[in-house]
Amino acid sequence: MNLNRPIVLYMHAGSGNHGCEAIANSTVKLIAAKRKEQGADTKLPVLIVTNSVAEDRKYSLGELEKEGLCTLVEERHIDRVFVDHVLYYGYRKITGDRESFLRYRFKDAFKLFSQMSKEAPLWDKSQKPLAVSIGGDNYCYPEMVQDLILAHNVFRKKGFETILWGCSIEPDSLKDPVLYKDLCAYSKIYARESITYNGLLNAGISADKLVLRKDPAFMLDTSDVSDGDVVKQGKTIGINLSPMVIEKEKTPGITMENYKKFIQYIFDNTDDSVALIPHVVWSGSDDRKPLTELYEAFKDTGRIALIGDRPAEGLKGYIAKCSFFVGARTHSTIAAYSSNVPTLVIGYSVKSKGIATDLFGTYENYCLPVQELSEPDSLIKAYNKIKETA
């Protein structure tokens, strides 16, 4: 793909989700590296449209912006401006123009992008500017699909070529003709695992549009971390747990019970320590809440640590030092996989199964769907199966 043109990355939710940060971070660095390979001007704009500039500047994207590799711009939040909300709601009601809210959302981004493109060095005007929907699992959430489609329409009408990047999509959702039409409008779709890739292919998406490529976060750099003996190299079990996974459980309380029994099993049968590692710290879905419950239950052992919030590269630094990792957040497990740490995924969707299948030929034994947790020792059994083959 010709990268000698301005690029905008959109649908970035903010770096308080360090998986979102990892995708954006790795993508920005990849663009810079590929432009260098192609002999393109590395000073051409790379604009990241974000839900929260403050979040991004707190973590690694702020450093990349200082280095001149990207520029951050925040979406407009119509729900925070009463008068605009009323006016746009009335306009949409009268005209039926559902894209109006999305044009409002990206108004500042389009203005800045236009200005930056005019001021940019010469670029190949035979190529449209490129809009990259930072896919991840966005299309897996029904409540997001409508805005994803509308946003895609807005960028296409603004004259962008569009690609869907590093995505997972539930194959059954492709039966929706509206979603299918939207996906066909991308010039390229980069599926991050084979279940999504084959699902798109079987649904009728042209093979010319499809690329099977691992999640860009596999390329995330690893920061060196040195907090004394908080995480001992090769003698620590890393653990991540998320409120989202707990919400998917079929038996109330079974997930937390499994995690507690697993930690006790580690303490009873090994001399390893345990590191609790959060990967999302948004107020509405903060990994530190369930992890704090685990910490409080075992803090008197002196063998458990709760790792504080930090950029994705730093979290990967802790994960990379572990001898084994149990993770609920997809990108915490990608940090482990890409650091060659044996990993058990507590998953709930196509992304977990697809990534494990591509790595190991099957997701069985490597991915434990939270919906299937029924016994309090399910996690212990899954851990021992992986240990047998490691």
From TrEMBL:
Q: Where is the Polysaccharide pyruvyl transferase domain?
A: 68-349
Which InterPro entries does the UniProt record give? Polysacch_pyruvyl_Trfase
Annotated protein name in UniProt? Polysaccharide pyruvyl transferase
Q: Which Pfam families match?
A: PS_pyruv_trans (PF04230)
Give the keywords, sorted: Transferase
Q: Which domain of life is it from?
A: Bacteria
Q: Which GO terms describe its molecular function?
A: transferase activity
